[in-house]
Amino acid sequence: MPHYIVDRNAQANGDHEVHLSGSVWSCLPAEADQRELGSHDGCASALRIARLFYGKANGCARCAVSCHVPSDAVSSLAAPGAAVGSA
Question: pLDDT under 70 in the chain at which residues?
Fold first, then answer.
């Protein structure tokens, strides 16, 4: 069963990235910045746990692709009628 970690440090957009532990990509945070999420059948359940800890989380675009939502897609998830990108 795959094992997942989440980065304790948020990205610039506030997301905490969920990573597949032992990934062949060089995308894992430093060991001191990793928080264990445990073993899961898939990334989606690891992402749910990460959101319990940090509120805002996303899958890594390299090693947790199945639960990664591109930042440009997030604006399309806004509620109908919501002003997206206006200041």
Answer: 73-87
Helix (H) or strand (E) holding 73: helix 71-74
Length of the chain: 87
- At residue 17, what are phi and psi to the nearest 5 degrees? -80, 135
DSSP string covering 41-74 = SSHHHHHHHHHHHHS-EEE-TTT-GGG---HHHH
Question: Of 28, 34, 31, 40, which Cα lies nearest the Cα of 8?
Answer: 34
Query: Rounded to two decimals, what is the model's pTM?
Result: 0.80
Q: Using alpha carbons only, how large is the chain's radius of gyration in Å?
A: 14
The structure tokens 């094992």 sit at 3
